[in-house]
TrEMBL record:
Cross-referenced Pfam families: IDEAL
Protein name: IDEAL domain-containing protein
Naturally occurring in which organism (per UniProt): Candidatus Kurthia intestinigallinarum
Lineage top rank: taxon: Bacteria
Positions of the IDEAL domain: 32-68
Length: 75
């Protein structure tokens, strides 16, 4: 039976660990940017919906509300 040190400093393992951290950072960054982007779209739709209500444009209101609901469902 062969025993190996747990504290092995094998460069291959270190490289894989760094790649894993980079991948995880990329995933978190992507999630954050998607969240910010969705928030900006939601604010845009809310402003356009308010404008449609002020103009009493029911058709535009319904269209924008449907699009906003689809955006919220996709996030």
């Amino acid at each position: 039976m062969e025993y190996r040190s747990i504290k092995s400093n094998d460069s291959n393992h270190l490289g894989q660990g760094l790649q894993g951290k980079e991948l995880l950072n990329d995933i978190y960054l992507d999630l954050f940017l998607n969240h910010v982007h969705a928030d900006q779209y939601e604010e845009y739709y809310m402003q356009k919906i308010d404008d449609a209500l002020d103009a009493r444009d029911e058709e535009l209101f319904m269209q924008l509300t449907t699009e906003l609901n689809a955006l919220r469902a996709s996030v």
